[in-house]
Amino acid sequence: MGKHRFCGSLGDQIHEIAVEDALVPGEPFWSNYVRGVLANLHRRGIEIGPVDMLIDSNVPRGGGLSSSAALEVAVCTALAAFAGVEIDPKEVALIGQAVEHEFVNVPCGIMDQFISANGKKGMALKLDCATLEYELVPMNNESVSVLVLDSAVKHSLADGAYGQRRKQCEEASSIMGVPSLREATLELLESFREQLGDVRYRRARHVIGENARVNAFANALARGDWDEAGVAMRGSHASLRDDYEVSCAEVDTLVSLCDRIPSASSIYGARMTGGGFGGCIVALVKTEDVEKVAQELLDSYCQETGIETTYLVTRAGEGARILYQA
């Protein structure tokens, strides 16, 4: 039946995998992101013959910037084009999520894969994870830039901590008698505080509060109210740190520095990004000051932690797409 050949961009050797063997998890571990896509396409009746694939990426691995979702969605988009079929971007996102569940053992949601497949230039995306309905919110003001700083602490969601928090949220929903925490209110939560216990109570408080903060953030963007958007970001990080407990000391230091450096007034807001336990922070910064802000953050972070790290300045961009096809 021939072989698939995968090669990564970080000096990895070429890995040859028999077509039939590529439909199950295997080694090297990173190949499971590709194997999982192949298996899910096969399940949908899309057969992929032998293919040579070079994977090149500048998304930091383990940085909380959805590198795995980007890989899954890009591979799915490329392989679908290779097979001459069209797949709805929503379905591409669902395939990526299935890869995480089945081949990587991470019980993730759909958000990362969905934005990777459906992102639009100059737009934020507000997603209803239950219905997969979404709304594009303008985020194309050139006077505001997105600054991403890496804490240089790498994370892995496959070690069980992420799944543990999901389980705690599901337990909280069950105790309160709601299908999911999206159906709960803070008033209902308070009435069950004793039954939930401290940990489940705080996990649920984060999710319920975060849903409200997402709406506040999207509404602020729509109005062009960057100060209010920053308030939502600060509240989000505090909740992720204290209630969901998925931050770490280094990430907290970076976020706190956004309020303490000399150019702090040029920062609207900051928070950790991704699944937590390390990775990057994201901040909304006045474009005219973004390089100065970044350098002050790098210098102060190194002074306080001894860690030298990197940053990037970006804007909302397009999701996965075919650039050209032979």
Q: Per CATH, what is the topology of the largest domain?
A: Alpha-Beta Plaits
Helices and strands, in N-to-C order? Answer: EEHEHHHEEEHHHHHEEHE
The description of the largest β-sheet is: 4 strands, antiparallel
The CATH architecture of the largest domain is 2-Layer Sandwich
**Proportion in β-strands:** 5-15%
Count the strands? 9
* Mean pLDDT over the full residue set: 92
In the sheet with the most strands, the strands line up as 7-8-6-9
Into how many domains do the coordinates divide? 2
Highest CATH level, the class of the largest domain? Alpha Beta
Structural class, judged by helices and strands? alpha+beta
Instruction: Give the name of the CATH superfamily of the largest domain.
Output: GHMP kinase, C-terminal domain
CA radius of gyration = 21 Å
Shape label: globular
Total helical elements: 10
Q: Segments where pLDDT lies below 50 for 5+ residues? A: none
Helical residue percent band: 40-55%
**How far is the first residue's CA from the last residue's CA?**
24 Å
